[in-house]
Amino acid sequence: MCLGVTQSTRSRGQLPRHAVLSSAVSTLAFTLPGSVRYSIHTKSASAYGTRAPSLLPLGAPAPHSLRLTPAATLRDSLSGSLCSSTTSLIRCSARMDLRGRAVLGVNRLRVLMLFYTMARIMAEQEVENLSGLSTNPEKDIFVVRENGTTCLMAEFAAKFIVPYDVWASNYVDLITEQADISLTRGAEVKGRCGHNESELQVFWVDRAYALKMLFVKESHNTSNGPEATWRLSKVQFVYDSSEKTHFKEAISAGKHTANSHHLSALVTPAGKSYECQAQQTISLASSDPQKTVTMILSAVHIQPFDIISDFVFSEEHKCPVDEREQLEETLPLILGLILGLVIVVTLVIYHLHHKMTANQVQIPRDRSQYKHMG
């Protein structure tokens, strides 16, 4: 006769009235019709620590701590061996009690993981749309915060040029039109921050349009040692060509997704923000066959990592286009300053020379005046 211990509390019910109970020195078993032998399991070793188990009367409800299991399949869960008739009841029960504690520890770990996941989800929702503070009506401002600290800031104006097909007037040929879709104010925004990966998602026009931007931070070995940079690694634009504001009678109207391929844009040294007032274009391959969506960014100021102060960008890293335009703007001024300096120096030299020559004795050019000299 085998007797084991389990932690389960699911087996509730009554012992059949026609069950035949039998007991030995430290075992309790009964036999149901069909010659299937069952054992009664208890939950804790303490139940038998001081006294032997009492027999249940026929037809009495089984306690919630009891579970009926075929005796032929009872195993000691820790050792994996069958509990023989000579195995101590207290020892077997104690082993199963340890197993119960281990299961309880696993359950606690699962609860902690659940709370951690919920906290991460709540952190992702700490986002703000501050576009109303921008003096540029086309520029949007988005802020992502985690644990009350700003971890991502983005200011930019975005426009998407989306080609789509419509029927010609003869309803035989196809004509390709273009939809100009601008990111509007009041958009819904989501985001998340990480040590090496951050993400910004924007939805507008009742989620007919959605923009997702993924930023990554990487470390590279250079001649000057390891250097860390961050970049825009992926752009995804989802659009609904059945939306009537921008699409007029589009063929195959519906949801389409445009993605970037092997993107490496806005490359910036770690710890700095990226700033670029000039327009930048990014090509996106659409799920609509043979269509390429063009994304145009302007007035960009973004920092997805290493923000030190709330709502304050770190030192700016200018894009090459802005640096070139700034040089083109300042070059005439520099040349003008140099020219003015040359003129001033020339006038000073002339004045000094004239002053020095004025103090010298003038020799008369008329020889008739020589007799009056001396």
UniProtKB/TrEMBL annotation:
GO terms (BP aspect): establishment of protein localization to organelle; presynaptic modulation of chemical synaptic transmission
Cell membrane as UniProt keyword: yes
Superkingdom of this protein's organism: Eukaryota
Keyword presence, Metal-binding: no
Residue ranges of domain Lysosome-associated membrane glycoprotein 2-like luminal in the record: 138-307
GO CC field: dendrite membrane; early endosome membrane; endoplasmic reticulum-Golgi intermediate compartment membrane; GABA-ergic synapse; growth cone membrane; late endosome membrane; lysosomal membrane; recycling endosome membrane
Alphabetic keyword roster: Cell membrane, Cell projection, Cytoplasmic vesicle, Endosome, Glycoprotein, Membrane, Signal, Synapse, Transmembrane, Transmembrane helix
Membrane topology note: Single-pass type I membrane protein
Locations listed in the record: Cell projection, Dendrite; Cell projection, Growth cone membrane; Cytoplasmic vesicle, Secretory vesicle, Synaptic vesicle membrane; Early endosome membrane
Chief location of this protein within or outside the cell: other
Membrane-traversing stretches: 331-352
Function field: Plays a role in short-term synaptic plasticity in a subset of GABAergic neurons in the brain.
Entry's family note: Belongs to the LAMP family.
Listed name of the protein: Lysosome-associated membrane glycoprotein 5
Primary gene name: LAMP5
